[in-house]
Amino acid sequence: xxxxxKSADQSLKxxxxxxxxxxxVYADDVDRQGRFPLEAIEAMKAEQLLGIQxxxxxxxxxxSTSEIAEICTIxxxxxxxxxxxxxxxQIKVSSLVSHGTxxxxxxxxxxxxxxxxxxxxxxxxxxxIGGNLRNSICAIEVDGDRCRLEKDATVISxxxxxxxxxxxxxxxxxxxPTDQVMTVFLKDQYTLEQTHVWDTLGMRGTCSDGFLFKxxxxxxxxxxxxxxxxxxxSMLANSHLLWSALWxxxxxxxxxxxxxxxxxxxxxxxxxxxxxxxxLAEMSSELQVIRSNIQAGLASYEQASKDPDRLSxxxxxxxxxxxxxxxxxxxxxxxxxxxxxCGIMGYKNGTPFxxxxxxxxxxxxxxxxxxxxxxxxxxxxxxxxxxxxxxLG
Length: 393
Hints:
Blueprint: H1 3-9, H2 12-33, H3 38-46, H4 65-76, H5 80-99, H6 104-116, E1 120-123, E2 141-143, E3 146-153, E4 164-170, E5 180-186, E6 190-196, E7 210-218, H7 227-268, H8 277-304, H9 308-311, H10 314-342, H11 344-347, H12 356-362, H13 371-381
Parallel strand pairs: 1-4
Antiparallel strand pairs: 2-3, 3-7, 4-5, 6-7
């Protein structure tokens, strides 16, 4: 192998594609059994993908959100649950990168993520608040250089399999629900008592069961910035953009199956237009709109990432909310069209054109975070924020 070929082999796309090949082998079994996609996650670790967002001076590669979104799209075409785990991990990493680089403990932790390929889980939901991550009932207790937390976490992303969990709480026992902090707890610093089972329609492999979380750790593991800043400046954009990228990947794979089905039909009847060909053209148009929406969101985030005030602005929040709403609502019609094209072969499990897993996984898009909640937040902001009226900003 020449140097150029070897270099291309180590490109980010090649690394993600090798993970996708492994994820595809086990995707149906992961979905059927509702099990953690261990093989795909081990492949991510082997390709050193879990620390790529972390800056070079903390042992990472300093990769951009756009590059990470591309990996989400590639892996989602093979296994959406594996891509979702990668995306949720990177969302947690984004908070460390954006708000922990000036704290020595968190810098050391980021080095460990890169060196040991640690997988980060998330615990932002809580019994009694629903899916509103900007409210907490539990409060962290700080006693000198130690902190303790007990939380009824109704969902912890792949909680049993995470190497560390980033968890939200009120800043202290007298704090209002919106005065929150986020704390890193390492696997040997907490216990999990399972309270809910993740038996879902789709995204079954994310294994996001509910637990009673009890942890104790050094208080330096509390992120130094308020969670309000973390949510607005890193979690909001990264969640909406990376999730949208993987949902796009699901839709792209559905399109590929439909295209392959029609090509096979065309070979059987040369000189005739196979049924579904016009629908395929419509799907292509819809996919382009979804892709352009995500690309525009990524470009907006990359431009705003160096300006904390812009990241926290209403206009930016509205734009990111709109990316999520549009991408989550547009993928289902695309997959439905693919199902109509493939017919019974798409409806049946175990065929090269099966689309049941795609359809079930895609239904999660409108629920993570609920589109109704997002639209409610956007509508409130639009009372004072002026809608963009031009094309060039």
